[in-house]
Design brief:
165 residues, mainly alpha, 70% helix
């Protein structure tokens, strides 16, 4: 999941090779960014909800992991609306005849697109932090393994009750 978020944040570009907004930004591509970000948000929410339903979420480690997952869900949820705003603004560029208005809209698109990508990166960082919490917990338990069935002491034999004597 973390990789998907990072990949999206790195691959979804608005600017052309010269660092400018294209004269006619592809509305369908920009809208697809919003749709894909919404799907990623759904995946992160499901991951968070699934973890929250486990018994592991109630222990010390789970209570440290759950806030990271929750933050990732929140952050990824903010990305899709910003991508949708970029797509909407791209449609209005063709109707803009005033150069100042066009420049304003292009700047707005750049800011919204960069903001959406930043939300995805920060969501990926939260997922990374959740994974670190789990890894640290697992590393700790490697030093103190739980006894296997064979290593556990046998239960003491039952004591005869006073009634049978």
């Amino acid at each position: 999941m973390k990789g998907k978020l990072l990949h999206a944040a790195q691959q979804w570009q608005l600017l052309d090779d010269t660092g400018h907004v294209p004269a006619s930004p592809a509305y369908t591509d920009l809208l697809q960014h919003a749709a894909d970000a919404q799907a990623l948000f759904g995946d992160v929410v499901h991951l968070t909800a699934d973890f929250a339903r486990t018994t592991h979420s109630m222990n010390r480690v789970g209570s440290a992991v759950l806030p990271h997952l929750s933050k990732a869900a929140t952050l990824s949820g903010h990305a899709a609306p910003h991508f949708a705003e970029v797509a909407e603004t791209a449609l209005s560029l063709s109707r803009s005849s005033d150069p100042t208005d066009r420049q304003y809209r292009e700047n707005r698109m750049v800011i919204d697109h960069a903001t959406a990508r930043a939300y995805l990166r920060r969501a990926a960082e939260s997922l990374r932090d959740a994974a670190k919490e789990l890894d640290n917990h697992l590393d700790f338990h490697r030093f103190f393994p739980t006894p296997s069935q064979r290593e556990r002491p046998a239960p003491p034999p039952p004591t005869p009750s006073a009634r049978h004597r």
